[in-house]
Amino acid sequence: MIRQCRVNDAQRMYLIINEAAKVYEGVIPADRYHEPYMPMNELEREMKRISFFGWEVNGELTGVMGIEPIKDVTLIRHAYVLPTWQRQGIGSKLLNHLKSLVTTSRLLVGTWADAQWPIAFYQKHGFSLLPNKDELLKTYWEIPERQIETSVVLGKDTKRNT
């Protein structure tokens, strides 16, 4: 079941994000990978501005994904599923739920250029790689230049029923 994450979910979210992100080691540039991948203080900052939703099984979160409206777009942020729960449709269910909440005309997601599995996941859900990724990353994200160099942005136009 999908539910909005709460402040007291931070420890479980920290576990999910950092366990799932271990797959990036050796794939993304070594200077961008560290453990923990997302320190608790960074997660706590992100939780103040991003609405996170989680997939819960038997009262325990197994996956999380965030949504963040910025200017005229909505960003998908921090999409992670515990490795033992991957490939069971949890990411798709979370993404579809977040897509239903979007009120802007465009949905964007950034990911690592060398991580082909998230790119394929978003493409399967109708997202396309965007050619102006540097401009988009500088406009909608607060990330270092090195991350901009090594990332891609995928986008999907949304239709609002008004």
CATH top level assignment: Alpha Beta
Number of helices: 6
How many extended strands?
A: 7
Architecture (CATH level 2) name:
3-Layer(aba) Sandwich
State the CATH superfamily name.
Gcn5-related N-acetyltransferase (GNAT)
Salient structural properties:
162 residues, alpha+beta, Aminopeptidase
Structure description:
This protein has six helices and seven strands; from the N terminus they run βααβββαβαβααβ. It has helices spanning 10-20, 40-49, 90-101, 116-124, 133-140, 145-149, and strands at residues 2-4, 51-57, 60-70, 73-81, 106-112, 128-129, 151-157. Strand 3 (60-70) and strand 4 form a beta hairpin. The mean pLDDT is 96.
Question: Layout of helices and strands, plus pairs?
Answer:
Blueprint: E1 2-4, H1 10-20, H2 40-49, E2 51-57, E3 60-70, E4 73-81, H3 90-101, E5 106-112, H4 116-124, E6 128-129, H5 133-140, H6 145-149, E7 151-157
Parallel strand pairs: 4-5
Antiparallel strand pairs: 1-2, 2-3, 3-4, 5-7, 6-7
